[in-house]
Amino acid sequence: MRIAIPTSNEKLCPHFGHCDQFCIVDVDNESKAIKNQELVTPPAHEPGVLPKWLAGLHVNMIIAGGMGQRAQHLFSQNQIEVVVGAPTEPPEKLVLAYLDGTLAAGDNICDH
Known about the structure:
Layout: E1 2-8, E2 11-12, E3 21-28, E4 33-40, H1 49-56, E5 61-63, H2 69-77, E6 81-83, H3 91-99
Parallel strand pairs: 1-5, 5-6
Antiparallel strand pairs: 1-2, 1-3, 3-4
């Protein structure tokens, strides 16, 4: 599994389209362990760009704070699952919480 988390200042950025970087986390599904992490700088934020770009990086899940419905639909079209409402925490903490079933996802803070 490959998870992308939009970040700013080494924590989840509340709105994925306004992040400085994405933390790409490779996870071993069987052991539920993080195998690798890397920070990548996204291309300019324009409608439809990030779903294709992340799909090209073989991402199959995004953990985000807020994301518009259109963006969620575009990620779905690219076979990328979206989890919204995640708290502003470091990527490793979010991924480990997701893997052990304790990620407390709240409301989608994006209304567009």
